[in-house]
Design brief:
single chain; mainly alpha; 14 helices; 69% helix
Length: 284
């Protein structure tokens, strides 16, 4: 009697794993094609019939080094520029959004609900509407041509991240804060020593989203950056695609290299990221 349920469970799990492997294989096919193209020599046929999904004959690993050290498009410099912008955006997002989210979740002040409603309404404003006014403001401030327009706004909060942090803090029991208050902690100490460590899962969500937004941003750097040595990875990729007769092997090699930081970040923050997404919004 017990063998049949065990056999059925093993069979169902096996079928589930086979289905997941098949789906993963289809998802990884474009990645295999990118690796195949990246390892080809210059001007080798790329769009072949049948399609070569995985490398079989060409193994030019030096293409990755060439993609990073191209004098016309120094991707190593672009990567460093992008990492600086991403790092400042993450720091500004964590500091500003956690403080504002804590204030909306725990502090009582006149107009709190009204201000939070206004904050949520700003999520409905299309970013196209703010593009020209923001550009004119930054131009008059003398920030045009620098990274300041790309990093300073992060220190003034983001409505979506503030909403996430506020909802998460509201799920935390107040007893921890009351105990710290009894021990003599003020509001800032309670936030720093109690709330912030407990908010690691939702902060991981904000960090990953802020990283991806800044890493993949093309329009912002394209508008505000002028010099080639200040460009980001996204602009370098766009320049390689838009030029006449691009070397697709170097383009795919650069693409694969630029995929590494987001993948590493995901695996590092995977546990907290999934836990943070699952727990946000449980309490209204």
């Amino acid at each position: 009697m017990t063998k049949r349920p065990l056999a059925s469970r093993v069979m169902s799990k096996s079928l589930a794993y086979l289905l997941l492997l098949a789906l993963s294989f289809t998802i990884l096919l474009p990645l295999g094609w990118m690796v195949t193209v990246a390892l080809k020599p210059d001007f080798a046929p790329v769009f072949t019939t049948p399609t070569q999904w995985f490398p079989t004959s060409d193994w030019h690993w030096e293409n990755f080094g060439r993609a990073l050290s191209d004098p016309a498009r120094p991707f190593l410099r672009y990567t460093l520029n992008t990492l600086v912008i991403v790092g400042l955006n993450i720091v500004g997002t964590v500091i500003s959004c956690s403080l504002v989210g804590y204030a909306f979740a725990r502090l009582k002040f006149p107009g709190r609900e009204f201000l939070f409603g206004v904050l949520i309404v700003t999520l409905l404003i299309p970013w196209h509407v703010l593009l020209i006014p923001q550009f004119l403001m930054y131009f008059k401030l003398g920030w045009y041509g620098s990274i300041l327009p790309l990093v300073v706004p992060a220190f003034f909060g983001n409505a979506f991240f503030i909403f996430l942090i506020r909802q998460y803090i509201r799920t935390l029991p107040r007893e921890f804060e009351l105990a710290a208050t009894v021990d003599g902690c003020n509001r800032l100490q309670v936030f720093w020593h109690i709330i912030l460590p407990l908010c690691r899962p939702v902060l991981a969500v904000c960090v990953v989203f802020a990283f991806l937004t800044s890493w993949n941003d093309l329009l912002g750097p394209l508008i505000y950056l002028l010099r080639n040595e200040d460009y980001t990875v996204a602009i370098g990729m766009a320049n390689m695609v838009s030029r006449a007769n691009p070397k697709l092997n170097l383009l795919m090699a650069a693409n694969l290299i630029m995929m590494v930081p987001p993948i590493v970040l995901y695996f590092v923050a995977q546990e907290k990221l999934i836990g943070g997404i699952a727990s946000v919004g449980i309490k209204g």
